[in-house]
Amino acid sequence: MAQLWGGRFVGETDKMAYEFNASIGFDKRLFEEDIEGSIAHVTMLARQGILTEAERDSILQGLSGIRDDVRAGRLAVDETCEDIHSFVEACLIGRIGDVGKKLHTGRSRNDQVALDMRLYTRKRVRQTDGLLKELLSVILATMEEHLETCMPGFTHLQKAQPITLAHHYGAYFEMFRRDRQRMADIYMRMNYCPLGAGALAGTTYPLDREYTAALMGFAGPTRNSMDSVSDRDYLIEFLSALATVMMHLSRFSEEIIIWNSNEYQFVEIDDAYSTGSSIMPQKKNPDIAELVRGKTGRVYGALMSLLTTMKGLPLAYNKDMQEDKELSFDAMDTVHDCLILFTGMLRTMRFKKERMADSAMKGFTNATDAADYLVGKGVPFRDAHGIVGRLVLYCVERGTSIEKLSLEELRKISDQFQEDIYDAVSLKTCVEKRLTLGAPGTEVMKQVIAEYRAYLEHDVFRKAP
Fold it and tell me: Cα 293 vs. chain centroid, distance in angstroms?
């Protein structure tokens, strides 16, 4: 069992205690980041004269060889090692001899693991942003295609006013756009290098932390060595942002599940993203949408776990912080898979336009427009509200809708109704006359869509080093 700390100890570590303490089983996924950090560190050590150029070249060659062999499957990570740092260092010494023991000069496992986790999280932030951008592209394509596809808008799950599918999807575009903004914000704040902080108090070696940070694309080095090794704020922020992404995906999934039901029949989910029943042959279940909705709690759990772990820890590093990885990795993987599958489901989903429009008409979504029509004839809004309320009751009792009533029937309730009422309460009119910014009218939606298209061509990380 490879250990980096044996000199102080005489007795053997209890086998169960060793395994309980070890992190190699999950931090092996930090292998690439560990090699990257070591290469930057050794390059800086040689530049500062702490290592000779020959020592640097030997170590760098050894590290590159280990990385190539693991990538190619020629070398497996030895899980009897305590952690990924021990594995890399043991392999290096085995390959190049005693010069490999100089790898750890001026470095602690505390700032090493802080660096590895920050590098890995930074990569996953970028990756998540890319998946969100792809999802937004699919949403925008649907908006462009369905500018005039009418459907009911809801409040309290009750049909409220007519909108378009483009307008409905636009609400989710806004949500996921905010998620991307959070990714860029997190990236900017976390993009500082903890390497050189040592165990907690820096080091006596003349390290050039600015140079090391620059080699790995950081904005600069962190400013307090104690905070450097004990900070997990960036990870908590990322998990919080991922939880918000999942909340948005879950809300969207819930609507798709409803739209897919026999009662609504607004959408047809592609077979690739549906499953059947083991006993009921007629079933086509929206399993992907349901699983995305279900996995939201899993990501919430990771956030709450890390918050709870960190809430009582004194400065600086504590072994509790090892618990930052497993659930965080799981949350990152979960969101990654959910975004890919959800985007695929949206891309292949088909809409039943006639059914959606018919649902909007049958739900009295044009009732507000009928009241506005009366206001335009000089009726006070409160009176108009009452008149249309009676009109809706009349329709409900007869199983019909406002636009299907004869003018004679309408005038029995109010003599202010004229022939132009039918145009006023048509779905097209109800939608098109809503032209304030953010409303579903076609012209204003075209303006918003153009803004969205320009946004997707813009790099949200442009200010990030």
Answer: 14
**Quick one: pLDDT at residue 80?**
92
Query: Is residue 259 predicted with pLDDT exceeding 70?
Result: yes
Residue 350 belongs to what H/E stretch? strand 350-351
Q: Which of 23, 58, 146, 156 is catalytic?
A: 156
Pick the catalytic residue from 168, 240, 277, 278.
277
pTM reported for the whole predicted model: 0.91
User: H/E element holding 286?
Assistant: none
HSE-CB for 21 with a 13 A CA cutoff: 12
Short-list 149, 193, 187, CA closest to 167: 149
Distance of alpha carbon 332 from alpha carbon 306, whole angstroms: 14
pLDDT in tens, 62-105: 999 999 999 999 999 999 999 999 999 999 999 999 999 999 99
pLDDT in tens, 30-41: 999 999 999 999
Residue 330 neighbours by CB distance under 10 Å: 16
Active site residue 64: no
**Alpha carbon distance 75, 66 (integer Å):** 8
Q: Quick check: is 277 catalytic?
A: yes
